[in-house]
Specification:
Elements: H1 2-36, H2 41-72
Amino acid sequence: MNTLVAIGAAIAVFGAIGAGLGIALATGKAVEAIARQPEASGKINTALILGCALAEATAIYCFVIALMIIVMLK
């Protein structure tokens, strides 16, 4: 049973990988956009920070679910 709990927690943490990739992709695109239009950097930074916060929240939810799986099923 402990092996299945560990596998379930590992699968739940995979959401954090997606969040990390999403933040990296968004940051890269924001840098490209600012390089093309420097006068729009304020709006781009605002959208970037909001998107990164939402992606990070998803990663935190995945982490919490993984902890819940470990604690509740032990």
